[in-house]
Design goal:
With 297 residues, the chain is mainly β. The protein folds into 3 domains: 32 residues, no CATH class; 211 residues, no CATH class; 32 residues, no CATH class. The chain is built from 5 helices and 21 strands. The strands form 4 sheets. It has an 8-stranded antiparallel beta sheet. A hairpin with a 4-residue loop joins strand 15 and strand 16. The radius of gyration is 22 Å and the shape is globular. The chain starts with a strand and ends with a strand.
Length: 297
């Protein structure tokens, strides 16, 4: 069966044996064989109820993040994501002035009147070293960083006005659904179907879309810090083990674990925060994936 045909460039998408399309190949057509059908991809930024792990959510005053799944807290089911997704100022320990969590998030046209999903409960404070806005320090950093780039050096210079005073634990926070049945324990694939999850590893909170590097807080540290319990059994992945994440922006992606106990310095725009005991993997992610469920199938 021919699924797609580009007469100008002589390219075909087909399903079936090579013999059926041998004549086209001999005529110079490029034949691309598929193992399955082509489907419309699931929209993770749409209004979805009940809410599964892997779709757009966010505090009413942020842009967008990802719902990371379900945890138990004080005998009730709560949703979980990153501190910087559940509050507009994760660098203070106080609750935000506004408690509303929307699905979809504000960036994805979520609004308070129609898309209220949950209310903020608590988050782990993110302590940072504030960046210096001194013009002399800025010029110094710019000159050094250009030279480092020209000589292909991996180091970079950042000047700070105040060093991080307290140690961090995790980048995670929880919220309580506004009604029963609003959330589901499902983690979804790119067609919106539930996937079989064997273990939870943690929550994605940072990364590099340039280098395909994902950084996640470990689930065991999240449980200790927030006093929650994940629905799925926890496993810290071994180096070299394949893990996955389900996120708002780049969907379901897989990658190799590079480290499982790394201290990582993360740029939080307002400053640099070092998060300890992180899982690092070579895995595609992008802005808006913050809070994604990370696990093992």
């Amino acid at each position: 069966m021919i699924i797609g045909r580009d007469d100008k460039n002589r390219v075909m998408l087909v399903i079936g044996s090579e013999k059926r399309f041998k004549s086209f190949s001999e005529e110079g057509w490029k034949i691309i064989r598929l193992k399955g059908s082509i489907r419309a991809l699931f929209d993770r930024t749409a209004y979805i109820r009940p809410v599964p792990a892997g779709v757009s959510v966010g505090h009413v005053n942020i842009t967008a993040g990802t719902h990371g799944g379900v945890v138990e807290y004080q005998g009730r089911l709560h949703g979980i994501s990153n501190s910087h997704v559940v509050t507009d100022n994760p660098h203070v320990s106080d609750p935000p002035e506004r408690l509303e969590i929307l699905q979809p998030a504000p960036y994805d046209k979520g609004n308070l009147a129609m898309h209220l999903f949950a209310r903020y409960v608590k988050h782990a404070k993110i302590n940072i070293s504030e960046k210096s806005w001194c013009p002399i320090a800025y010029v110094k950093d710019a000159i050094y960083n250009r030279l480092a780039k020209a000589f292909d050096r991996g180091t970079r210079s950042f000047s700070f006005m105040m060093l991080q005073q307290e140690e961090n634990t995790v980048d995670a926070g929880i919220y309580e659904p506004v009604s029963l049945g609003t959330i589901t324990e499902d983690v979804i694939d790119d067609n919106g179907n539930p996937i079989k999850v064997k273990y939870v590893c943690g929550l994605l909170f940072a990364g590099s879309d340039v280098d395909n590097i994902m950084v996640a807080c470990r689930a065991d540290n999240i449980e200790k810090t927030l006093g929650v319990k994940f629905i799925h059994e926890i496993k810290i992945p071994e180096v070299g083990e394949t893990i996955f994440k389900s996120g708002r922006s780049t969907g379901l992606t897989f990658g190799e674990t590079l480290a499982n106990d790394m201290n990582v310095s993360v740029d939080y725009i307002k400053g640099i925060g070092t998060i300890p005991h992180c899982i690092v993997a070579r895995l595609k992610c992008a802005g808006g994936d913050s809070g994604s469920f990370v696990g093992i199938m």
